[in-house]
């Protein structure tokens, strides 16, 4: 299946052929993490941990089950999640007095405990995060990593003395995201959701969205400002310096295994995956190119090459299977290994190694003696270029429109006055969703496509994946 012809089918096929996940588990939407898929997810998790630990967050791990009465304290929140919740109603044969639910997200698990942890201004800010699985009963068609019912999920939860400090946290979240997205070569836009589309219970929600090759958007995560919307019902209070009791202001930041889905979708091609070097379980594969009578010699040189690359801190694999080199190339291209090194007798005689980049297919000869530094530099180049190509494609898939008719299947930017009524007209007439208003000022100068009033900011609309 060709990516350009049928993206959706291509995606399913690539996930299947590369064995990133096993969908045969007998609960729909709950897939098995295979060794290869889990190694990539674990690299993503490790980098999230590095960023969060490095910005003064502490990792916690809350229980999976939430009592129904805790869950229903914040009214908007429960309305938003009610239809997606998995319930636990029995313990053995006995019905439970208070029903329990599997966390769809962890606000209602954490906040009753935060109310006990936060006492005085000295306890603030409280910056925590966890990486756990969450559960949502999706009714739409499931799709590996993109729409599942058991979701591998990162969520940070913070408490602050006032709104301003919570706003500082939101800005720090943008910076964390930007550093991570660069490592993952994933382009994104920060789009503030409309009031009718924000997270249930949030004061405002900023979505982290990327554009897929079929022109649809994929939400990779979100950042929320809660103000006191949760701290009031959950009683999260602190005593300020004057002895006054105040409610904390809260934020959250969440991202899921969709990040992996986005890497597959954005970078893969008709040959298979193309993994960003920072998350690839195998960054470099060494393939000996054997000639008659010289196999032992070449194999030894390939093993030495592997050792040198490994010492440089690179995840390298020596493919010394007894199959043709062509079959090896095919397998590693499918798996998305960013760089292949070939070494044969001719290379050995000339003191060189053949480099083959997975992203461009470019072949080059480089000095054997400088392999450690050259491999590191090539991986950096691949990563930088993967990101810039993906960013360019996202730009190309974003178009301006001045009316609501004949819109292409892309991310569309148009003028909107901000009135809810005009917003609904835009969504109904285009059969698309308002994804949001850009967080960054785009210097937009236009008018609302519905009422003609001046629009100080554009709005992005699309069909969401
Ligand atoms: Zn309007």
The share of residues in extended strands comes to 25-35%
Major sheet details = 11 strands, mixed
Name the hetero compounds present. Answer: zinc ion
Number of helices: 13
Shape: globular
Regarding CATH, which class of the largest domain?
Alpha Beta
Secondary-structure-based class equals: alpha+beta
Strand order of the largest sheet: 3-7-8-14-11-10-9-22-25-21-20
Name the CATH superfamily assignment of the largest domain: Bira Bifunctional Protein, Domain 2
In short:
The protein has helices spanning 7-17, 35-54, 68-71, 75-81, 107-117, 163-184, 231-234, 258-267, 295-311, 325-335, 345-350, 371-396, 420-430; strands at residues 21-22, 32-33, 58-59, 65-67, 87-91, 94-102, 126-135, 150-160, 189-192, 204-211, 217-227, 237-239, 245-247, 249-256, 284-289, 316-318, 339-344, 352-357, 363-367, 398-400, 411-415, 433-438, 446-447, 454-455, 458-462. It has 465 residues and is an alpha+beta fold. α2 packs across α6.
Which key terms come to mind for this protein?
single chain; 465 residues; alpha+beta; BirA Bifunctional Protein, domain 2; Rossmann fold; Translation Initiation Factor IF3; five-stranded mixed sheet; 13 helices; 25 strands; 34% helix; binds zinc ion
């Amino acid at each position: 299946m060709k990516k350009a012809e049928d993206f959706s089918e291509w995606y399913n096929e690539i996930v299947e052929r590369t064995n990133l996940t096993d969908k045969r588990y007998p609960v729909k939407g709950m897939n098995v993490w295979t060794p290869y898929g889990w190694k990539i997810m674990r690299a993503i998790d490790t980098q999230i941990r590095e960023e969060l630990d490095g910005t003064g967050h502490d990792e916690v791990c809350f229980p999976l089950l939430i009592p129904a009465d805790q869950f229903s304290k914040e009214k908007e929140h429960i309305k938003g999640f009610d239809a997606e919740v998995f319930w636990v109603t029995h313990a053995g044969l006995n019905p439970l007095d208070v029903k329990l639910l599997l966390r769809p997200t962890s606000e209602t698990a954490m906040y009753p405990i935060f109310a006990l942890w936060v006492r005085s201004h000295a306890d603030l800010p409280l910056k925590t995060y966890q990486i756990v699985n969450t559960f949502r009963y999706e009714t739409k068609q499931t799709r590996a990593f993109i729409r599942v019912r058991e979701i591998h999920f990162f969520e940070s939860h913070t408490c602050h003395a006032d709104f301003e400090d919570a706003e500082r946290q939101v800005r720090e979240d943008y910076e964390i995201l930007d550093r991570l997205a660069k490592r993952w070569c994933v382009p994104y836009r920060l789009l503030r959701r409309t009031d009718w589309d924000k997270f249930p219970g949030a004061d405002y929600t900023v979505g982290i969205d990327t554009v897929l090759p079929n022109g649809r958007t994929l939400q990779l995560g979100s950042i929320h400002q809660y103000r006191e919307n949760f701290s009031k019902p959950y009683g999260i209070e602190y005593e300020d310096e004057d002895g006054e009791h105040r409610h904390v202001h809260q934020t959250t930041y969440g991202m899921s295994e969709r990040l992996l889905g986005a890497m597959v979708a954005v970078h893969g091609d008709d040959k298979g995956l193309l993994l960003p070097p920072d998350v690839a379980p195998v960054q470099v594969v060494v393939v000996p190119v054997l000639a008659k009578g010289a196999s032992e010699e070449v194999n030894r040189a390939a093993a030495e090459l592997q050792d040198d690359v490994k010492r440089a801190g690179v995840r390298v694999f020596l493919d010394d299977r007894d199959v043709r080199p062509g079959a090896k190339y095919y397998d590693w291209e499918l798996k998305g290994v960013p760089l292949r090194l070939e070494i044969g007798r001719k290379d050995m005689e000339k003191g060189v190694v053949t480099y083959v980049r997975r992203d461009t297919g470019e072949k080059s000869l480089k000095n054997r003696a400088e392999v450690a530094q050259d491999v590191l530099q090539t991986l950096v180049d691949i990563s930088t270029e993967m990101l810039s190509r993906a960013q360019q494609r996202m730009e190309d898939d974003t178009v301006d429109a001045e009316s609501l008719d004949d819109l292409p299947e892309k991310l569309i930017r148009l003028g909107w006055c901000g009135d809810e009524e005009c917003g609904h007209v835009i969504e109904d007439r285009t059969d698309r969703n308002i994804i949001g208003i850009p967080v960054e000022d785009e210097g937009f100068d236009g008018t609302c496509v519905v009422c003609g009033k001046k629009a100080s900011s554009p709005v992005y609309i699309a069909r969401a994946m």
